[in-house]
Amino acid sequence: MIYIDNRQEKINVTDELEKKIEYVIDFTLKREEFKKDYEISVIFVDNARIREINKCQRNIDKATDVLSFPMIEYEDGKVFKELYLHYDFDSACYDGDNLILGDIAISLEKAQEQSIEYNHSFEREVCYLIVHSVLHLLGYDHMNEADKTKMREREKEILDELKIYR
């Protein structure tokens, strides 16, 4: 189950964009061998709000494009598909039959700015940020060079399969 909540007024959110995001989330999870019923919340915010969230959650006082809040804690360097067969999820990770993967906060204002900066479509930028965030919810990270390389390669593979190019 995917919950989408638009909490900003700067960028028009179409049904088509919401459907594309849902498709990209499902596609990414399938490519990551995720076979459980799940729950992910996506909120759309503007730069001011994501800056507040970033300051509160990470003590970084600046706007960013996207923030991911995984519900599951992973061993360093491990991702969901490497662990799920051997992992017993805490009942707190479930809402009924759905495994709660976490929350994604995305600044559509920043995504629009970056789409202009990188000279590609707004939709492409949003899809990239969604893939990036879902991978975070599944344990990928980019805090060290090895993990960053692993995550960037996976992002590219998934976006290529989706036929979403720069």
TrEMBL record:
Broad enzyme group: hydrolase
Obligatory cofactor(s): Zn(2+)
Transmembrane spans: none
Major subcellular location class: cytoplasm
Cross-referenced InterPro entries: MetalPrtase_cat_dom_sf_prd, YbeY, YbeY_CS
Keywords: Cytoplasm, Endonuclease, Hydrolase, Metal-binding, Nuclease, Ribosome biogenesis, rRNA processing, Zinc
Binding note for cofactor: Binds 1 zinc ion.
Pfam families: YbeY
Gene3D superfamilies, sorted: Metalloproteases ('zincins'), catalytic domain
Top-level taxon of the source organism: Bacteria
HAMAP family: Endoribonucl_YbeY (MF_00009)
Family to which the UniProt record says this protein belongs: Belongs to the endoribonuclease YbeY family.
PANTHER family attached to this UniProt entry: ENDORIBONUCLEASE YBEY, CHLOROPLASTIC
NCBIfam families: rRNA maturation RNase YbeY
Protein name: Endoribonuclease YbeY
Organism the protein comes from: Clostridium tepidiprofundi DSM 19306
